[in-house]
UniProtKB/TrEMBL annotation:
GO terms for biological process: methylation. It comes from the Bacteria. It comes from Dyella soli. The keyword Methyltransferase applies. The chain crosses the membrane at residues 73-92, 104-127, 133-153, 187-220. It is found in: Membrane. The lineage of its organism: Bacteria, Pseudomonadati, Pseudomonadota, Gammaproteobacteria, Lysobacterales. This is Isoprenylcysteine carboxylmethyltransferase family protein. PROSITE patterns: S5A_REDUCTASE.
Amino acid sequence: MAISRGWRPMYRHDPSFHVPFVVVEQAPTGSPVASLACRRRRDLLPLRLRGKLARSASDARPTGQAMHTVREIAYVVFFVWLFIDAMVVFRLKSSESENRDRQSLRLLMIGNPIAYAISIALAYGRAGAMDSVPLQVTGLVILVIGIAIRTAAIMQLGRLHTPNVAVRTDHQLKQTGLYRRIRHPSYLGALLGFLGFALALGNWWSVVVMMGITTFIYLYRIREEDAALAAAFGESYRQYAARTKRLIPWVY
């Protein structure tokens, strides 16, 4: 094997600009070098290309740091919201009500934490990674919007809001505010919060798992709640249900 070094023009129109190169001459396997023509291979790595590769690596580091920062903010917002929400909702629980929950609260308390844990674990893998800070920031915005909708819905319903599916003895059918167009705005806010948090984690599989589990739980809870309110209010609730949607105005 013979190695030679030298300089060659980088561009034909600019012969004055040269870059270093290395020529490697290697004889075919099993043949004497003196009796066979050498096979040439020129390994050229211009200095400008090296610079581009270095800049690409350095540009990736700030992006990774930004993604990590958005994720950490999402953790704080999400879990502080869950804590405050639980404190408020469970304080509204009353013994002066008929429990018609049919295990939906237990399903929510077991299934939702499982969804959180799996989604967070998936966020640290490369499979399904978004690699998009704007998408994560969008998720953070959706998370805040979801929290705002759920908070407003709970405040408008007041003491009639309970953690379990139940009908109070003095229960009144709420048909104003957020409840004018949809019957379960607090669940809409919760699902938007879950969607936003999963997007802020920066992984598509986190979104799939989070929304798959939580949507199933809340749809089951909505069915039980609609049945309980229809049994309690009769025709007035059926008329209200006929002119409103469950979660999304004019859609569902």
